[in-house]
Write a structure and sequence with these properties.
Proton glutamate symport protein, 23 helices, 456 residues, mainly alpha
Amino acid sequence: MSDGKHSGRQTLYICAAIVLAILLAIVMPTTAMKFHLGGEVFLNLLKMMVVPLVMSSVMCGILGMGDVRKLGKPGLYTILYYFCTTILAVVVGLVVVNIIKPGIGTVSEEKLAEIKGDDAATGDMIYEYLADQVDVPKEKVAEFFGSAEQSEPTIGMIIENLVTSLFTDNLFTAASETNLLPLIVFSIIFAGMLTTLGENVDTLKTGIEQINHALMAFVMLLMKVAPLGIFCLVTARFGEAQAAGELGEVIQQTGWYMLTVLSGLGFHALVTLPLMFWFFTRRNPYQFLWQMSRAVLTAFSTASSSATLPVTMECAETEAGVSERSTNFVLPLGATINMDGTALYEAAAAIFIAQVVGIDLSLMQQLTIAVTATLAAVGAAGIPEAGLVTMLIVLNAVGLPVEYVALILSVDWLLDRFRTAVNTFGDACGAAIIDTNFVSELGDGNAGEATSVENI
């Protein structure tokens, strides 16, 4: 009970930190920007944990099964769950944008002419913007999506990159670049091999489990300073936007578009995901949301599912009671491939742009957007605002003018925080669903230490 009260206080502290951070950014933007260093330190501490935690947790999840062959059914249903929720998110986005119609009569002819005459409003411009946002060279961004100077990215390019990104020729390079997919693949194969070697590798198995336990203890220690770190992150970013005169102007110019995307994200997070959660677990989904609130708020603050992963795992195990075996396998995979919020946003943004330029899309074209947005979201890089680049793929799929991405560029950093929060909650729901329905499939492993969601 005391742990629950402590968790509740932590959540309230984080909520208060976010509110105070936004207020400070609005009233004193220059002062708010000075907290940038504190935010960077906190974010780097989270990122520092991601690679070792992902590898140790995935290995522990496989070792806990006792027999790697038991991975089949839970693994299949995990991927199926993520695919289904992404499709549902896209459908929600399409429905909401067709009901609200935010692109009709909201953008002036002067603004459209300005964008159309701007030769810089291309994929190359977006690469430069994205590189600036995540503080990496433009070449690194283009390396994943393809060279913007040569051609606009295509869905085939994303699928090809996704397949090749499953494997790496250098684990250390993948780790240094926080490229999680090949690390997960290696961890599954390596731990699966260990389950076949019997007592000869018991010491190694114990070492992996102890490393994972120590890393989770470090995460819990880090969460004690989370309110302060989150305050610094949020106030610095909002202060930067306010100082540039963007905050009020952006909200005024793109208000209907923001309302549409936020309505879709809200419906998916508060209706679609809870319905799925209740159907498969028969538990209260909103109580579960409260239990995961620290992870959701951290996702909003960092705008990165990968950076939030340590917090998501800690909340799922200690607050929501999801078994360690489920969180160790499901959550790292979800942080890498589950992008409900991104898929919803891309579908809504594509229809918004079509409405702005007066293009009436047929049902078949909207279905094409749905399929493309789903695949593009799965293939998105694990960096903030990568959805901007995959947006080019969605627009190309139905022949919409790419340059009009500039209409949503100024507000993407803000919406990215909301869709990351939805992604994180979707990951957590998946872990609880797999835990409730397939915990017996995951073997006995550490059953004495794990707590099924059914016991909450």
